[in-house]
Large ribosomal subunit protein bL9 (Luteococcus peritonei), 151 residues
Amino acid sequence: MKLILTAPVEKLGIAGDVVEVKDGYGRNFLLPNGKAIRWTRGTEKQIEGIKRARDAKEIRGLDHANEVRGQIEELSVELPVRAGAEGKLFGAVTAADIAQAIKKAGGPAIDKRTVQIAKPIKTVGSHTVGIKLHDAVTAHVSVAVIAAAAK
């Protein structure tokens, strides 16, 4: 089965790559999870759009990854969430919440899939989160989870 990747897939390729995979892998994993689209002559034109979007938010090389790591690690990130009286959250902090908080704090726009949370964040306080910018570069940012003011 010939597919065009729309997201990076480990040991397969990055967004915009045309890959040949077994039918079951493509039909049961890549297509339902939105990581690929079927290849046709018509979708061949979409490859350029996918590659342009990838280049706009991609970390370009090791030097650029180290520069972005410096920007992210300097940030003071606060994330207001609903919490109970004892400091327990109503739910958990997600990778998307952290990515949005980093952008709001003045950092670069990062993909939520690059945020690495060791264990679910379910309490108020300071938590360290990893952000994989490059194969060799991971930024660590301290996220201060604070109780939001009641409305």
